[in-house]
Amino acid sequence: MKFSDFGFVNTQKMFQDALAGGYAVPAFNFYNMETLTAIISAARKTHSPIILAASESAMEYMGDDMLLGLMAGVCAQPSEQIALHLDHGHTLDACIHAIEMGFSSVMIDASNKSFEENIKISSAVVKYAHRYNVSVEAELGILGGIEDEKTKSNKSSYTDPDAAAEFVRRTGVDSLAVAIGTSHGPYKCKVAGEKLRFDILKQIEKQLPDFPLVLHGASSVHPKFLDIINMYGGKLRNACGIDDAQLKRAAKTNICKINVDSDLRLAFTAAVRKTLKNDPAVFNPRDYLAPAIKYMTETCAYEIAHKMCSKNKI
Question: Mind telling me the catalytic residues?
Fold first, then answer.
């Protein structure tokens, strides 16, 4: 399949527009009909470009045939600026498979390899993907935390600005994910209000002027959802996210793609826990999945307007 068959676009124009307009394109992770419905609904209501992100684990969970059906069901139009992105592809084969499925953008994450090995793997992905007009994102630096069973690390390291410039020059990637203090999962900081390293980001921008940068692990971990989850039997007492103001500030820089996953998971879980606790007789999944879609749609719309600043950009 070609991504154009689904009405998707690659990220080249949307990133150019984001750099020029001083906003970031939201990349929301999906893994079923409910998450996809919420993301698309919010994007269309806010008139925002959007990146639909699916990890290797999510693709395995949905299965190729179901994923293809979901993509056809989006009924995307190129004017909507919707990209389908492989999040944290760890091998060349994983990226090739996504491209063959109809993904318009892939991330090769070899950040846990040596610098030279990262360059070698990322260059191979670029060589293959660019033949099909597919955008490529890579990562330099290591984010701590856990996203899923395939993307996790108990260590972290900031991106070196000089290395970033060399990496982009030698690989030809279209965008670069940088590590400036974010992390995967709902436990992103030791104390509330921890600051991102904008000083490092500024140095990277000097080395790579007008180049698209990406921020992973950028969920805010909204307290209202934590309160609901913990009130109705959950155990996320010390969860902590990235302050909205810092993410909005990042969106005004060369960070033109901000990834969000945990916020949608928390919204989904909060709605389901609350519904089942308040009405123990509920057994029809639609009765608790509908509130989950509502919570996630509201979350996406809020983040588009107040963090990404991408509302009304298409």
Answer: 87
